[in-house]
## 1
Amino acid sequence: MKFGKKLKHQIQESLPGWRDKFLSYNDLKKLVRLISSSPVVLNGNSGKVEAEFVYLLNNEIDKFNAFFMEQEENFIIRNEELQQRIKKVTDTWEPNGSQPSNTIYEDEVGQLRKDIVDFHGEMVLLVNYSNINYTGLAKILKKYDKRTGSLLRLPFIQKILEQPFLTTDLISKLVKECESTINAVFPVEEEEERKREVKEAITVAGEGIFRNTVAALLTMQEIRKGSSTYSQYSLPPINLPVDSDLIQLVQLNPPTAIF
Amino acid sequence: MEARPAIRRSAAKQLSHMGVSGALSSSLPVLQPSSEETYPKLQDTQQVSMERPVAQAGHLTSNSGVVGHIFSSPSRFSTDLHYSSVSPREKQSRNNPFILQSLSSVSMPLPHSSPSGVFQSTASCAYSKENNGSWGTDSLPGFLDFPVNTPVENSQIESSSCSGILAAEDISKQNDWQEWANQLITDDDALTSNWSDLLVDNNVTDLEPKVPKPSLNFSAQQSQVSQQQPASSREIIPAPSREIIPAPSREILPVQSEDIIAVTTPSSANSAAAKPRMRWTPELHEAFVEAVNQLGGSERATPKGVLKLMKVEGLTIYHVKSHLQKYRTARYRPESSEGSLEKKLTPIEEMTSLDLKTGIEITEALRLQMEVQKRLHEQLEIQRNLQLRIEEQGKYLQMMFEKQCKSGGDKLNASSSSLDDPSAQPSVAMQVSPDKSELEPSKVEHGEIEADAVKSKVTSVECAEERIGKQKSPETEAPKDCEPDVCMSSSQPPKRPKIKE
């Protein structure tokens, strides 16, 4: 599959509010093709064309930045709110809490778990969003350089890497924090038992974030599978040894929502 | 508000237009003449419709002068700012969005570099860009001194002129700004008709999204660019603006029942519209929450109060307002769900018998989801690190290549020996190859082209480049004797290895 298709697929699987925030890869690709055949460029007068191209790319980058920072802000708020909820639930309704009630606890914790996992998922998807847009931009720049013979790619990429939408450290940190807090709310189970449950669980898993995450992983795997223009700027194929079971499982049993 | 969706659509078409209509080459020459035409028009317009023509025209001309100046100054992205693009509106001043855009792109790196991640933005457009010192707070009070009967014009002009300098945030906002700029800069008729429209009360809602967006973006960008005079200009604006702009602000106020701090940052019902790009951090949020709690909770706290309590420099009431809104929404749902818990108990109890198994399944499903998510995150991190390293490598190679080109033959040997040294590049290369060996080797057959890590004796940078390129392939073979490789690779520089699976 070509990147354009993969990106499209990824966009389709993504959360509704995100769909128009991705890179307009195909449009830019068409543009590059157009540029390369435009008389302006062929006459060697590519300065203005380049400026215009850069302008459009900057538009895209602005779009990414704005979306990313808004999501980041939302995540920060949600993170704090979830922490408070966890605290409240464990303090109030847990057996050792102030108003121990197993039913309420179970219910609250159930909802809480779901929310935390979804929260984690959304954050990871945001990182994926950044990544896939970066990949797209890099590809577009490469095409541009190839077609017009200019050297836009390298300096531009350096600038891009400094942009807010690619400085995902905070989000990654939140993700890791989330992973550790989740142990506080999930019951500890036996490994064997878990594997048994997994197959059933797949059919229970809902749509939305889960599908999106799986799609993202698969897309990533495919994008890195190999290309005809392998260069020093290409990434090696993805390594998902442990996941192969997981992913195969998911591929064979596509999750269907029961809610 | 229908303007915005229309603009969005046309903006979305923009890119496809670019590709399809071939406007690219033809549109560029339009730029210069149009920009030259527009500036005198700007002045005329101002004189006709404004009560204080001279000063304002002067300011605005200087604004246009700034714009013109910006045209010629190189941006960070080393673009020639003389680009145009398809305006969603039509023929008019296509230069403007570009200016905005380039300026926004110029200023983009700045917020990221600002200390403590606090967005150094203010509510005024009195900031001057680096290469243009003429816009000072003097221009702003001038605007604000407009007589009362031109409130709309005042805000419009101010925001448009302000936004004339800096950029909108995304395509839709940018196009709104464009609207403004077009209105301002192009013919009188359009402008006065717009103003007369705006003066009508029932168009205030139209005004509202327009006015905030460009000006907010402007102020956002402004402050990104220059972090001077925050306090003073902020103070200058609030008092007069509230007096001077009775009609529109009164309309706006009920929408957001908070203070309007400035003409340039009126509250906006649509928080997605004009959002200065502020980057919130957990620490900042903690301070925010504390302030909110001190004020009695998210419902009772006001943005102004929170802003005062937080005492964070550069934080505007607008930031606080939008953040507070988000905060309230985030808290509302869990609170309401807990409140209705008692009611939920009954249906839950009914489910308990079935619930046991389902509960476990659900937990398992969640676990699975978590696993996949964790995996994705890991892979993303790995991928990102690789990408960063690849770019670093590329940068290094570029440097090397340039050095190579400069010095010619003599340096060839020097560079080759430097490659042998355990210096940055080889060490990076070393780091890269262990990474690759960790990754599953693909079934790549490079045949005669072998990757060699560090000890290669290269005779040209090109060979080196090729070599590093090959090395990047997931090759886990031990470094081989490079001598034959050198000949091989140098004989096939243009070829790229194909990956066979």
## 2
Amino acid sequence: LRKNVEDFTGPRERSDLGFVTFDITADILNGKNGLETIFDWNVKQLFLYLSAEYSTKNNALNQVVLWDKIMLRGDNPRLSLKDMKSKYFFFDDGNGLKGNRNITLTLSWNVVPNAGILPLVTGSGHVSVPFPDTYETTKSY
Amino acid sequence: RGCGWPGSGGSRGGAAMDLFGDLRRMNKRQLYYQVLNFAMIVSSALMIWKGLIVVTGSESPIVVVLSGSMEPAFHRGDLLFLTNFHDDPIRAGEIVVFKVEGRDIPIVHRVIKVHEKGNGNIKFLTKGDNNEVDDRGLYKEGQNWLEKKDVVGRARGFLPYVGMVTIIMNDYPKFKYALLAVMGAYVLLKRES
């Protein structure tokens, strides 16, 4: 699992807004037997999401989902996405993104069975990203 | 006391007549017994439900999905099993069932943003998988975040289709009354040998 990012921030009203572009390369496998695909007879779909987790002065823990995707049974469990932009606005609750050195991006997924338990699985491997100390004036995005 | 009633006919055609015949011939004691039986079944069902509430920590441990806002994962009529343990923190990606303050209808959506303070205060934002925008439009006027107190529970398991019965009963109340009448009649009139 590998992601890399480049970014810049800008203030909107009174909260920090972060912009992130990323690549995702991933193989979604069944945790029990590392080599088997996750899509067995009881897996209807996967809900994948990329979340950014970080701490700020205001809040001890922040989690923001930047991007998500629904993968149905039959789709290729191998992801190879390049230059993706976040689907959702990366607003902080406050101004905690400026100069924040440690934003951790993780890929996770919710397994939706045909019937049964709904587990949330976090992918192994994550990337830490720092935000710059200064704001940028509006760029085309 | 013996099995069966004197004079109860054996032919299939006469079964319905026998039922009403029995009803007339039932003495008071038999009737009280049947009513107690019925009450016991109702109490047991209530106890199981209350037990589930205690064990899961949720005020409504089983809910029916009412809208298509979480498709294709959940469809209208699917059944969800919830837990609401106090020490379970709310995290992005989880499917939560919540009620907006002042409204009775539970909503099943996914958590997409979480901001938690050091003291454990959490505020979070939700969005239906099948919706374009987040749920701020659904919250109360001026409300931008949900809190722990709005949560009915977290979806841990699911069964498809089974909840359709509840939806049908809601949309067609006559069906509900008919079902209750049949169940009640069965329990009251069922004879034990």
